[in-house]
Structure formats: C-alpha cells, structure tokens
Amino acid sequence: MTRIALIFFLFFAGLFPLFIKDYWLYVAIISLYYAVLSTSWSILAGQVGIISFAHAAFAAVGAYTSALMVIKLELPIPVGMVSGTFTAALFGLGIGAMTLRMRGPYLALTTIAFSEIFRIFLTAEYELTRGSYGLKVPLIAGGDKIWMYYTGIAILILTLFTFWIILRSRIGLFLLAMREDEDGAATRGVDTVRFRLFAFVISSAFAGLAGGFYAHVVGLVSPQMAMLSEMGLILAMSVFGGLESLLGAAFGAIVLQTLSEYLRAFVEWRLAIFGGLVLFTLRFSPEGLLPRIYSLFEANWNRFVKKSRIESG
Questions:
Q1: Structural domain count of the chain
Q2: Staple partner for 56: which of 151, 187, 231, 292, CB 3.0–4.6 Å?
C-alpha cells in the first residue's frame, strides 16, 4: 500500500505544475517545506518517542546559515543550503548531547528554552541578522517557481528515502525497540543515548535543509521562523497525517498548509482550528488520517476482489 501511495504521489506531483496557477504553485512549494519538517519531526516523535519543540528553531538555523553564506561569502545557493544542513546538524549534536539523557517534560522544556533563546538571539543581533526586519535572500533560479517546486520535490524525496533506509536498517530496529520500551532495549545492550542522539542529529539536519530551502523560496528570513507557533503547526501537521507514518506526516503537512490558505480570513483562529482538527484526529483516528485512508481503501479493495471472485466462480 505504501509503495502504491508513493507511486501515485510522484506521478501526481510531477504533473501538478502543468495544471495549476502561479499562486497555488507557490502554496504547494511552501507545503513541501512543511512536509519535510513534519516528516523529519515524525521520525523523532513517531519512531523514537522523543518530543522536541526545537524543530522550527533548527529550520531557522539552516535558513540563516544559508542566507549568510550566500549574502556575505557570495557562495552559490546549493552550497549555502548544504552549509545550513550541516550547521543545523551540529546544533542538534550539541543540544542533543546536553539534553537527551532527560526524558518526558524535562526534555520538552529544554528544547522550548533553546528555541526561545535562539529566537531572541536572532532578534537582538541586528548587525548580523537585521533583527526583526530579517535578511533579504536571493531566490532559487531567480524566482522561477517551477524550479523551486521541483527542488522542493527533490528534497522531500531525499528526506523520505533517507528515513526509509534508516528505518529498514539495524539502526531502525533499535529505534523502534527504544520507542516501545527504552529500558528493555537498554537491558538488551542497545546504547539508547547514542541512538537517540543519532535520530536527533539526522532530524535536525533535515530541518536545517528545509530551512535553507525556505529561505531561498520566500526571499526573506526572520526570527518568526523560530516562533513556538511554527512548532505547533509542525506538530499539528504530523499528528493529523500520522505520527508513525513518514508519508502520513508529509501528507498532513500538504493538506493543512493548503487548508490554511482557505482559512486566511480567520487570521489568528487558524491555529485554533488546526488544534481542533488534531483533537478530532486523536479521538477518532489516533494513528492519523493517511493510515486510516489506507485501511479503508484496503478493506474496500479486498471486499471488491472477493465479491468479483465469487461472481466469476
């Protein structure tokens, strides 16, 4: 089922720019940014059981690093994005090494503190970051939305493929074992701190890559990227689509970001509406929306096949 969904997604995504107006193509590009963030966060929360509220901050790290590399050093945009990826990974390594021995609310509160400290730093360091005004950044391919769109698709595919490889490897088996019973995994010889740190670093790296992409799509980076409301949006998208499903998290991001365009008239109520959707999802479909669609489609398909065999027999 996952393979069929992925093939359908790639086919639809490849043809999408041919049938859509520029405005909705831009919405799709921003949706891809959130899809990468939601997917990379879901491997933490859904596959390992780590609740971090610093993911939006890591995206801001990648965005500002890429912006400064391109503006100050005049490096090509792809080099800036790669630099942002590695910088976010280094931040993830440092924060993770200090915090990942903590559990539950202590870890969550520490990542919130880092996120707020980093946002305040971005606002205060005017000479480097231009504070709340933000940095004006060159656009990918001079602002060509088709190039931006396919770049976003490539980054999302890279994210999904990397995490799929990890989860199918021995490391993935350790991560899943830690999610189910971390103490039990530790007693069986799994170095839980080491593998928690690995997941945190790889997740932070892809958040940084997404941030670098976003910087050169929007053309402006500001401290707003690191706000906790952005983290709440990422969380809502992941839960809505399915925390334990990589495709589900990406699907949730695309659906909710598209929906947010229709809810612009509600301004600040948008997050409240998203919160209501998350509560509805947790109540009636705890596994997320996409896995539920899978199960319904599979049940109906099996019923159709069985009925066809009976009628033909």
A1: 1
A2: 231
